[in-house]
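Q: what sequence does this backbone want?
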């Protein structure tokens, strides 16, 4: 009798744990993703593992080959099909880092980091603002709610467009937030059609930063501001140090980056396309708290999540390939943590730029000089 009772207790506890971890656990925010809803974007179930293999083989190529490849946008699109649901499940709707703030939750710190954007580019309720690389729209909604402005986001991934629109509607912000599917290297917007613009850890996916900055410059009205949080290597990075090189290459491979730029390159690239640089600052430096604390997942948490995705795959609730993607992201988190702890990498080099009040002819002369 006692053995039977213990067996039934184990069954009940086991079922409860499975229910919690699979159907409940993982919605990092209210209205977030559940583990059971991992779909791998718009990739059909039978193609997920193949797409992952293609992605991984592409970004393991030499950096010089990847950074010059015309296929980068397509592989960035594949990357976000593979990771968007996992990001939402474990991270939330804002796919970026933020400095930790003593006494505040990660969610609060993220919101403050996003609202800083609205303040820096001086958004007013009457403005039409561009979010360059909006993802599923977490920052867009925070900035729209904070500023009361109209925000237009662009992302290359159709699945993210659908997710962002659904989140906008649930948040009651669909009249303020618009989402467009497109490549930020060739944006479908008219010249001088925005009152400001920002990008939050998105332009790192561009093979050439000047191509993105040129497009942002084109669509901004003269005299308006653009702010970007850039992923860069810092002056502490040493190319002759194998550990440094492996950490940076690990970040690039696992985050669909054609090649990280050096911190001191960003301002000169902005000036090259015609911007005036108003301010540059690494927001990861003290007194800011460490941004990588959220990545320091314990081994127990990792194996718990690994078990969840493995069970979902065996039950065919998630496609083959999810386990491999989860492992890739865990490994990438280790490289990001290493980059943060050593100070050789920052994901929040802030640059604030202004488009000069000048004629197109004057801008052309400036670029030719």
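A:
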């Amino acid at each position: 009798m006692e053995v039977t009772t213990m067996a039934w207790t184990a069954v009940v506890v086991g079922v409860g744990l499975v229910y919690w971890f699979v159907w409940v656990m993982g919605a990092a925010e209210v209205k977030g993703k559940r583990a059971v809803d991992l779909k791998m974007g718009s990739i059909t179930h039978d193609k997920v593992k193949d797409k992952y293999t293609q992605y991984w083989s592409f970004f393991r190529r030499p950096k010089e080959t990847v950074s010059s490849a015309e296929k980068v946008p397509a592989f960035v699109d594949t990357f976000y099909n593979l990771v968007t649901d996992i990001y939402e499940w474990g991270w939330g709707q804002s796919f970026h880092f933020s400095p930790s703030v003593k006494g505040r939750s990660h969610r609060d710190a993220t919101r403050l980091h996003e609202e800083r954007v609205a303040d820096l580019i001086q958004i007013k309720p009457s403005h039409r603002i561009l979010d360059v690389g909006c993802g599923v729209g977490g920052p867009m909604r925070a900035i729209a709610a904070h500023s009361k402005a109209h925000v237009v986001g662009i992302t290359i991934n159709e699945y993210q467009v659908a997710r962002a629109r659904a989140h906008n509607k649930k948040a009651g912000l669909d009249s303020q937030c618009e989402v467009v599917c497109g490549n930020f290297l060739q944006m479908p917007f008219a010249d001088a059609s925005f009152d400001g613009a920002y990008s939050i850890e998105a332009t790192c996916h561009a093979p050439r930063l000047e191509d993105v900055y040129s497009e942002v410059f084109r669509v901004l009205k003269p005299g308006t501001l653009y702010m970007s949080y850039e992923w860069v290597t810092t002056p502490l990075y040493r190319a002759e140090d194998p550990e440094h090189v492996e950490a940076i290459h690990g970040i690039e491979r696992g985050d669909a980056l054609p090649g990280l730029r050096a911190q001191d390159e960003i301002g000169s690239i902005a000036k090259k396309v015609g911007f005036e640089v108003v301010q540059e600052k690494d927001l990861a430096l003290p007194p800011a708290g460490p941004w990588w604390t959220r990545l320091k997942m314990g081994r127990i948490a990792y194996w718990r999540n690994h078990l969840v995705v493995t069970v979902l795959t065996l039950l065919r609730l998630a496609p083959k390939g999810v386990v491999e993607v989860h492992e890739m992201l865990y490994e990438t988190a280790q490289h990001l943590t290493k980059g943060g702890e050593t100070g050789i990498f920052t994901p929040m080099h802030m640059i604030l730029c202004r488009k000069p009040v000048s004629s197109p002819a004057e801008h052309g002369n400036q670029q030719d000089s």
